[in-house]
Structures are given as structure tokens and as C-alpha cells.
Write a structure and sequence with these properties.
Layout (H helix, E strand, L loop, with lengths): L2 H15 L2 H8 L35 H18 L3 H23 L4 H21 L3 H23 L6 H17 L1 H24 L12 H14 L1
Helix pairs in contact: 1-3, 1-4, 2-4, 3-4, 4-5, 5-6, 5-7, 6-7, 7-8, 7-9, 8-9
């Protein structure tokens, strides 16, 4: 375990995530709606995408975004060490925070963000496996992506509150976890439901939700992937 690596990963994650709130605020709109061009609270124009800190001058500083990304990045640095996987999942973790932020706001995982996550993870991991002479690792990653896609597609088709965005995200995360190993895939499949299941019960008991309410699954899927990488 390298302390400089952990600290460097934490700084990278936190600093990068400082730009997430502005992007999340603009993208957190209903499906089929163009990205937001004005603040949802004060109607101040929001024409640029790159801005660190609060999405608007009327908003509070989203410290949780920076803190969560820094914590995730430091944990990945401690577990994965100096590896190709760490080099790839560090920027992916910042994108994961963005996906979680958008999903919690509007219960939607925009296809361009999921596609970007696939591009910066599956492509370099697949190429790395081929160049390293590890075709079995690549085949395992593809198989894991297929398993996760099929499992979540079946859940979505029987009407259990899942959208196709969740299904696509599960496939991308399945590829990354499959690259790490089958124990990571198993954790990635189980943990999201261990998170959202009890959470749904608490919300029902406290009457903050009803039986037909749906919870965003994206944050739980991403948390499950993190757990899978840690234990796998």
C-alpha cells in the first residue's frame, strides 16, 4: 500500500468531482428533454459546462460530491495499487459520481454518459488484456457483461422498476468486474439489492414512499461495483 498513491488518487478524485455539480444540474432533466440551459431554482442562464463548485451562485457548495469521489478514489488506490485497472477506473469513478448524481435527481441514466463509461473502461481493458496475452481475461469480462445484462434485462422486463439505463450500466460494470474476477462480479450483482432493499423498507415504514414508488438503482449499482473491485 503506497501512501503517496492513495493521496494522489484522492486529490485527483476530489478535484475532478468539483466539476460534476454543474454538469449534473444541466443533465438532470426528463427523458427526451434537452439539457438545462438555466438554473432550475433561480432561472439564471447556464450556457457553459465547465465550472468548479456549486452549479449556480444560488446553490450550496456540494461538498458530498467532492468528498465521495475523493473517498472512492483513495479506496481504489489502496486496493488496486499501481495497476492498469487503477489507471482506468480512477477517471471512471468520477464519471460514476456524475451518473449517480443525475440518477438521484431525475431517476435517469443518460445514454451518452453510460456510453462514455463503456468507452473509457471496456476499450482499454480489452486492449490491455489482448496486449498482455490474456485472452481468457477478456473472455471472462465479456461473459460477465453478458450475465449482468441478461439478469437485469429480465428484471426490467417483468416490471420491477428498472429502466434500460440500469440494464446498460449493469453490462458495462459487469465487464469491468469480470476483468477483475468472478468474485467481483458476484458482489456486484448482490450488493445493489442489499442496498436498495432495506432502503425501500425504511422509506415505506417512514411513509416517505409508497409501494409503487421506484428508487434510482444507478447509485446502488455503482456502489456494488466498487465493493466488487475491493473484495474481488
Amino acid at each position: 500500500m503506497s501512501l503517496p498513491l492513495i493521496v494522489g488518487a484522492a486529490v485527483f478524485g476530489g478535484a475532478s468531482a468539483a466539476f460534476v455539480p454543474r454538469i449534473a444540474h444541466r443533465l438532470a432533466v426528463p427523458r427526451g428533454t434537452p439539457a438545462r440551459t438555466a438554473c432550475a431554482h433561480c432561472a439564471k442562464p447556464m450556457l457553459d459546462w465547465v465550472r468548479a463548485g456549486a452549479p449556480c451562485s444560488c446553490s450550496r457548495q456540494p461538498l458530498w460530491t467532492v468528498g465521495a469521489a475523493a473517498l472512492v478514489a483513495s479506496l481504489l488506490g489502496a486496493v488496486l495499487g499501481e495497476s492498469l485497472l487503477l489507471l482506468i477506473v480512477l477517471p471512471a469513478s468520477v464519471l460514476a459520481v456524475l451518473l449517480a448524481a443525475v440518477d438521484m435527481r431525475c431517476q435517469r441514466l443518460p445514454d451518452p454518459l453510460v456510453a462514455a463509461l463503456a468507452l473509457i473502461t471496456a476499450v482499454p481493458l480489452g486492449a490491455g488484456a489482448v496486449l498482455a496475452g490474456e485472452p481468457a481475461r477478456l473472455l471472462r469480462a465479456v461473459a460477465a457483461a453478458g450475465v449482468c445484462f441478461s439478469a437485469y434485462l429480465m428484471i426490467a422486463l417483468i416490471g420491477r422498476g428498472l429502466g434500460l439505463g440500469d440494464v446498460k450500466l449493469a453490462a458495462v460494470l459487469g465487464f469491468v468486474l469480470g476483468y477483475a474476477g468472478w468474485p467481483a462480479v458476484l458482489a456486484g450483482l448482490i450488493v445493489p439489492h442489499l442496498i436498495n432493499g432495506p432502503l425501500a423498507v425504511v422509506l415505506l415504514v417512514t411513509r416517505r414512499a409508497h409501494r409503487r414508488s421506484t428508487l434510482p438503482l444507478g447509485p446502488a449499482l455503482l456502489t456494488g461495483a466498487l465493493v466488487g473491485l475491493v473484495v474481488g
